[in-house]
Amino acid sequence: MNNTINDERAAFYQRIDKHNLMPLWEQLHNLVPRQPAGACQPALWSYKTLRPFLTESGDLISAEEAVRRVLVLENPALRGTASITSSLYAGLQMILPGEVAPSHRHSQSALRFVIEGRGAYTAVDGERATMEPGDFIITPSWTWHDHGNPPQLEGGEPVIWLDGLDIPIVRFFDAGFAENYEKPVQPISRPEGNSLARYGMNLLPVRHQATSHTSPIFSYPYARTREALETLLRHEEIDECDGVKLRYVNPATGGWPMPTIATFMQVLPRQFSGKTSRSTDATVYSVVEGRGTVWIADQRFDYEPRDTFVVPSWASLRFENQEECVLFSFSDRPVQQALGILRESR
Ligand code: GTQ
Questions:
Q1: CB atoms within 10 A of CB 26
Q2: CA torsion angle for 316, 319, 320, 325 (degrees, to 10)?
Q3: Which CATH number does the domain housing residue 254 bear?
Q4: By alpha-carbon position, which residue is closest to atom 9 of ligand 1?
Q5: Which protein residue's CA is at the shortest distance from atom 8 of ligand 1?
Q6: Fewer Cβ close by (within 10 Å): the C or N end of the chain?
Q7: Looking at ligand 1, which atom is closest to the CA of residue 139?
Q8: Is position 13 within any domain?
Q9: How many helices (H) and strands (E) does the chain have?
Q10: Span 102-160, pLDDT tens digits
């Protein structure tokens, strides 16, 4: 009897399969899981291990030929998709003294988080920002951007940063466009520091109307972020999960710097034994200062400065460290908030 019905069902599935049909009841539990069940795995990329590969890539291809000389950090469970989480892309980009990564623009939003080296710049819509380690820089959707490392008198140094893009999100929507600028380097129309003076001093131009989805500031220097964290660490309550954690904002709206990617900076105090938290926005971390331990789901990772690690959606997360640690991070939180599906538990 049971066999008969199973055979009949199997035969039915085969017949409807030819018509591009499938029975929901065989898949319902996978399609509407009780809790997040994505493929994304916890992982850590040791900077010590991958730094020599960046040097090698510098001998193999120029920034001009590569357009962007990047080693993509692929989640071990998402190989072949250029994704570090289901929704986000991350890579380490290197630019050598004298090189230019030519100007282009695309629908995808990008962030740069500077890891190593000084003297390079990113130009965004007519203004340059010199890159210093720990700086957070945005290149919003459809803005012209090029990167350069002008030759210095003393020779200069390689500059390396973490790229975070919403490539998988834009790919999901099939909404991606891109074009190259007519020249490798875009013209400069405003002096460096102009947007920070206009929008980054707790002041706004008097008739400024916030009309854009993106922050009018495109460089958030580490020196200021670090000072804020230091002050709060000394005077404020420490969150038992996050230490002291701040989010980067669009100063004209209080919203996120870009509509698809949230960014954060946090300091974990000395002798910290954090409580467990979880959240549906899978998050990529870049270690700025200090060595420590992070528990992600049931895995332990020991990190040091410049390492990158990824925390999947709804994985339990717990920090433990002796030294004071500073961590930069980014996630798709603005998208989940806009859709009303963000969930956290602490
Ligand atoms: O710098 O414009 O890592 O377009 C991937 C795609 C960097 C960039 C990436 C890009 C860029």
A1: 10
A2: 160
A3: 2.60.120.10
A4: 163
A5: 68
A6: N
A7: 2
A8: no
A9: 8, 23
A10: 999 999 999 999 999 999 999 999 999 999 999 999 999 999 999 999 988 788 999 99
- The minimum-distance atom of ligand 1 relative to the CA of 101 is 1
Structurally, how many domains does the chain consist of?
1
Residue 47, token pair as written in the block: 């900077």
28 within a domain of the structure (yes/no): no
Print the domain residue range for 290. Answer: 37-345
* pLDDT at residue 1, as a whole number: 57
Q: Could you give the CA distance from residue 66 to residue 72 in angstroms, rounded to a whole number?
A: 13
Query: What is the value of pTM for the model shown?
Result: 0.96
Could you give the angle at the alpha carbon of 70 between the alpha carbons of 68 and 74, nearest 5°? 135
Question: Residues 163, 165, 168, 174: is their CA dihedral positive or negative?
Answer: negative
Residue 25 lies in a domain: no
CA dihedral angle for residue 50, residue 54, residue 60, residue 66, rounded to 10 degrees:
120
Whether 88 is covered by a domain: the verdict is yes
The Cα–Cα gap between 34 and 227 comes to 43
Q: What is the DSSP string of 206-247?
A: TT----SSS-S--EE-HHHHHHHHHHHHHHSPPBTTTBEEEE
